[in-house]
Amino acid sequence: MNDPLDERLASALRSQATMTPDAGAAHAAFLERRRRRHQRVIAGSAVAAGIAFAAGVLAVANDHRPKVAAVSATGRTTQPQPLEGTTATLPGETTLTTTSSVGAASPTTVTTHAATAPKPRATTATPSPTPTTAPPNLNNDNIQIEVVTEADSGKTFTLQRGKQGILVQLSNDNVWTEPQASSSQVLTRTSGSTSSDGSAQATFMAAGDGQATVSADGRSHPQPCETAQPPCMVPDHIVHFQVTVNVVG
Amino acid sequence: MAADDRDDRIRALFEDHYAGLCRLAYLITGDATQAEELVMDAFVRTFAGWRRIRDLDRADSYLRKAVVNLSRSRNRRRQTEQRSTATLPTSIAPRAESDRDDDVWDAVRELPHRQRAAVVLRYFEDLSEADIADALGCSVGTVKSQLSKARAALSRALEDEGGQR
Question: Which of A13, A21, A37 lies nearest to residue B36, judging by beta carbons?
Answer without folding.
Answer: A21
